[in-house]
Amino acid sequence: MEYDLVITNGVCVTASDVAAWDIAIKDEKIVLQAPSGSLAEAKAKRIIDAQGGYVMPGGIDCHAHLDEPAIFIKGSNGRSADSWETGTRSAVAGGNTTIVAFAPQGKGQHSLLAAVETTHKLATGNCYTDYGFHVLMSDPNPQALDEFKTLKEKEGISSVKIYMTYTALQLRDDQILSVLLNARQNEILTMVHAENGDVLNWLTDQLEAQGKFAPKYHSNSRPPVLEAEATNRAIALSSLIANTPILLVHISDPSAANRIRIAQNAGQPIFAETCPQYLFLTRDDLDKPGFEGAKCVCSPPPRTKSDQDAIWTGLANSTFTVLSSDHCPFKYEDKEAGKQCCVNDEYPVGRFRYIPNGIPGIETRLPLAFSAARLALTKFVEVSSTNAAKLYGLYPRKGAMIPGVSDADLVIWYPQDKLGDISITNSMLHHDVDYTPYEGKRVQNWPRYTILRGNVVWDRDGGGIVSEKGVGQFVKRGSKARMSSMQCE
Ligand code: DUC
Ligand code: ZN
Ligand code: ZN
Ligand code: ZN
């Protein structure tokens, strides 16, 4: 048989193993794993010599906002900066092969299916990675709840995100219960943004009354307890709906993580996500001169150095199921739709309450986390790829390297020490954003090749993005896999 692609001399890392295997690919699938070097002479259209570099399942980033209106900021014309084209281009240059981003239910839009149709129009033919949608639900009206069945069975959408904050999005507890009930009936996973919106609005008013408008006060308006309280409440609401599984997204606060851990230890199906901003940024980054701190305004806000350590520990001990980017970019120099929309003569340091919440990070997620070397290699693959596939109904087609079963979605890193120390600059990234919050941060490795269903899409030394847009396909997703014997579902 002639293979389409063979990868030889690499060290394969999955969520369970580190082993020197060669890999053969045919018709977009991994078809064979064999001892290292044994396929070096195989008949193949292309052979990549991975020379002692790590070969892993491609990154799966299931938390990104592309071409989304910033409905969470009152009166805002803001729109997340990246399109499906530029967002997935950036993703693939950072080692990702699948992303799941949001189909937002617009203001006044009753139907979730209409939101899905709109989002398909934005994405179709434009993507460099395979992709799926979560619906972002701001109005749990009866029609929308009824649509869960069609979403799951016909559209291949098996997750919904809801908010406990932002005036335009925030659901009351009774509405959350209705979502959880319908989600349970249709095996849809509910992602919860857990911050107490009423409290943070009140604190914001207090800060403004004291003349505190600068970006750093974003952090004061969202103290950790507000995240811990909402996390606790979400867990309680899940327990009322027969312990229906929920995923607490973008957890930043160790006390919220502890509450999650307690629920997990009690056997509740509570899953959690954290993001690079809670591992690599701190609240001090919001206190840069002038308005620069706005570049790191996201919600929840970055915390302290010791909180970062606790979040790393939570990744290592499986409190966190996934490490996602929460790529939600807004341009900095954009007075219409970007971070500077609230800077004017009256408010020269802006008004933090109107700074669009979110930062870019889809391309830097894997290089930053890999270079930090704080997780075992298998753990790194688990939280950045395999668990995302399991949670969101993509496994084992995605997130694994099982011959005959898994798509040939791979990321190949440079051999250790080959690349040296590189400094992240915005000019090397592929998003459509005018800054990165990680400017100047040093990393020791970067994805050398990203391979989507057997096609090289990113070749760092051979032209960068080497595929046309449109190679990425929509993936219909199924139910969440069973993920832990501890958690009774
Ligand atoms: N939540 C997100 O998930 N992304 C950006 C803004 C927010 O609050
Ligand atoms: Zn409505
Ligand atoms: Zn959120
Ligand atoms: Zn998000």
Number of helices: 13
Categorize the overall geometry. globular
Oligomer: single chain
Rg, rounded, reads 22 Å
Helix share bin = 25-40%
Runs in which pLDDT lies below 50 for 5 or more consecutive residues are none
Cα(first) to Cα(last) distance is: 44 Å
* Share of residues in strands: 15-25%
Short descriptors:
Hydantoinase/dihydroPyrase; D-hydantoinase; Amidohydro-rel; binds dihydropyrimidine-2,4(1H,3H)-dione; binds zinc ion; 21 strands; 489 residues
Walk me through what this model shows:
There is one protein chain. The protein has helices spanning 84-93, 112-123, 142-146, 148-155, 173-185, 197-209, 217-221, 224-240, 254-265, 277-280, 305-316, 365-372, 377-391, and strands spanning 5-8, 11-13, 18-19, 21-26, 29-35, 47-49, 54-57, 59-64, 96-104, 130-136, 159-163, 189-193, 246-248, 270-274, 322-323, 410-413, 422-423, 442-443, 447-452, 455-459, 464-465. It has 489 residues and is α/β, with parallel strands linked by helices. Helix 5 (173-185) packs across helix 8 and helix 8 (224-240) packs parallel to helix 9 (254-265). The strands form 4 sheets. An 8-stranded parallel sheet has the order 8-9-10-11-12-13-14-15. The protein has a 7-stranded mixed sheet with strand order 3-2-7-16-19-20-21. The radius of gyration is 22 Å and the shape is globular. Bound molecules: dihydropyrimidine-2,4(1H,3H)-dione (DUC) and zinc ion (3 copies). Residues 65, 72, 193, 249-250, 299, 326, 328, 357-358 line the site of dihydropyrimidine-2,4(1H,3H)-dione. This is D-hydantoinase. Keywords: Phosphoprotein. Belongs to the metallo-dependent hydrolases superfamily. Hydantoinase/dihydropyrimidinase family. GO terms for molecular function: hydrolase activity, acting on carbon-nitrogen (but not peptide) bonds. The modification N6-carboxylysine is found at residue 161.
